[in-house]
## 1
Amino acid sequence: MELSSAPVQRLKRTIERFAISPDDRWVVYLADNDVDDVFELYSVPIEGGASVKLNGPLVAGGAIDHYSFRISPDGGTVVYVADQETVTVREIYAVPIAGGPAVKLNGPMVTAGDVQAFRFIPNEGAVVFMADAEINGIYELYRATLDGQSTQRLTPGFAQGVGVWPPNELDKAFILTPDGRILIYRANPEFGFELFSLDLSWGVTTKISGPMQPLGHVEAWEVSSNSTGVVYRADQEQDDVFEGYATVVTGGPVTKVNPPLVAGGDVTTIKFGPDGERIIYVADQKVDGVLNRYTVARPGEPPRAINEDITASPSMGAVLLPDSRFRLYVQGDIFATALRRAENMILVEEIPQGAISKFLISPNGRYAVYLADRDTLGVKELYSLDLHATTLGAAAAPP
């Protein structure tokens, strides 16, 4: 079915990146609105209106880190990283989402020090961030309140050559359990890169990965939705042979998830299912180079293959609405698929001479916010679509 579009509200232009607040009220975006090629941080009501610049004045040559900004869980604060005061010194700031003074959250930084990543602590009005604030190149973890009044180091004070080591993706350098009690991070205090948990209430640090061969390291990890378990991928037993392991966030027995792998085989990804107990992993377990997905009911039980060869990855980009009734995706137009009826509906028709390059769904599923050169070819602008204001129309052929 084709959906006739509700009035589409243009929000702002020349957008680099954007995010929707958890309360569905605001869109925060990065754009060079004021000075060409100087990208700054702005907020605008999701229904349209005047935008407000959020960051403080940038020093000449300073910039907002394009991928750093995040909105607090309550929707009231934006936190970002920028070399706002000194070029090449990246610091962390918090600002009200509706506008106001931006406050610095980190303490004094060593020359060439940087804040590299951060996460909000649920229900605390605080963040954890990673920085080489005291010794250049040695990363530690810090906690700071969003009002900028309190900053404390969480990790023990690493020596030269030791520290918190992020994986390839800085966004996953450390993970908080969903309840905000435990911090999971990777460091190299002895051999290889091992996994540690830090209880934020008691300040107790525990190594939770198993004994590591000298060249081994933990490559990736995930915490369960019930805040009790950790799974990780590591070449813990044999150099460059990556396998999957499971343990608890407070430390305890470590269980290998996969059976013996074929020569050349590896576990390539591992994660928890939505229930926080079932484990899902991908591996070329039986034939080198042929990937299959497996599920394990709980650590220690045998895995079960849940599909055949998935070596050719499916296309991505579809978003499931919170009520699980529709799936939205872009293929020229923005489509919605009614999951129970397998019908395809056009929400935003194909844009003449332009393209939709990104879209997000607001947390409660009411709005689709998308980036497109809808009005001027080559000029990416931001639009919101009220999904509650759409009406059913004629059928559209599936893509």
## 2
Amino acid sequence: MPETSTDNRRGRPRCGKARQCILDAALQMKAEKPISRISIEGIARYAGTGKSTIYRWWPSKGLLFLEAYLHKREVPDDASFADLAVEYFAGGCGRMLVQLLGEAQHDAALMSALHTELFDRMHSAYQSSDMSPGRYESALGKLVFHLMTQPDAFTSDEVEQIVAAYYDEEKPTLRSVAGKVLP
């Protein structure tokens, strides 16, 4: 997630070390409890910074956690759809994504940032693949639905298997049974 511009900002210059301490504190606290039970005050206390320092960089808790989530991923710009799916949906990353999606239900800026930083990137990777549009949407839908409804996190192998199944040849559907296109 790009850093917020510091042009025309009041107060002391921002310290990169404090920023990293805040991101680290957020991730460490997330390892202990869900995002919904973590407060900005608690993160500030844990990071040894002031609450106002956090709000200068991130206007909401959700945006702070999204940056922490993305910051810990080192995925190349030209990563494939499959690589991004494994990186974003497997293990603890997938569990954190579920919590970010939950937070986004009442944080429009977070929802917009999730689209821009995550789903638009996955869409771009899909467009450079040989997966058909319907199959991309089905694969992404299956991944998100599983995350939202299953208590266990995906393994990398499970994510790879789901994505690979959608790269396979088109399977017949009710709309194309016996060579007839149904309405």
